[in-house]
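Collaboration report, partner site 2.

Our partner group contributed sequences for two proteins of shared interest, and the home lab folded both. The records are reproduced in the order in which they were received, starting with the first partner submission.
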Amino acid sequence: MKSDITVGDTFTYRMKTTEDMSATQYQESSPPVFATPHLVGAVESAAARLMERWLDEGEMSVGGQIELRHTAPTPLGWEVRVEAKLVEAAGKKFVFEVDCFDEAEKIGSAKHTRFVIETKGFMAALEAKVK
């Protein structure tokens, strides 16, 4: 892991919402709006992409916990912007505060924890699991 990690660093992830991100994909009676599971993915993407600059060869980051509030609907076809801010770095543990917006308003917030691990060990565990 690199040593230039700075609490307060940020990364902004942007995505266009599409039909396959609809809440109706998870529950037919839901309205055709941007689904919460895809917002979770965007939160992870923002934090993981921020961390990429700090990883050494053979390292990766994995999500450990997300506490998410999805507070407003987003029409499909709109852009979602997710802003991750590093608020804690302790060894291989990284904690982010994340704010989420659509084209009109704030649509959520999250606290997300990620960990740095060795890629080789992770892949070996995965391969052992599927044998």
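Second partner submission, folded after the first:
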Amino acid sequence: MKQAPKTLPSKRLPSKKTLPYAIIADVVLVLVFALSGRSSHHESLDVGGILTTAWPFVAALLAGWVASRNWRSPVRVWPNGVCIWVITVMGGMILRVVSGGTAATAFVIVATVVLGVFLLGHRALAALVLRRAARS
């Protein structure tokens, strides 16, 4: 008896809304991280100051997107989100120090926790919403 050929699982591409949502959310949340840090230390909240604080982390975030090929599954927590989170923190700290900034232990801990909550949290919520929408 002849069996039907097995089909390979189709690659699901992200919806047209998921990809822009993920990149915009990531960048905005990194900017919010920089803004909140500057605010808590009573530093200037002008655009230049915020961008000076944020640029190392935004650059590392974009490197994380490339390294994880996040455009394929932009709201996936594992491994994409975790990869982006780790690269954003580590790369951001390296770029910050290389460009003359500091990376005190307390700052590294706070940045790791806050960026983890931000970058993984929004992905987990988006994945939950997409899962529920697919069921209905």
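Feedback sent to the partner group on the second submission included the following. The two ends are 39 Å apart (CA to CA). The first helix runs from residue 18 to 40.
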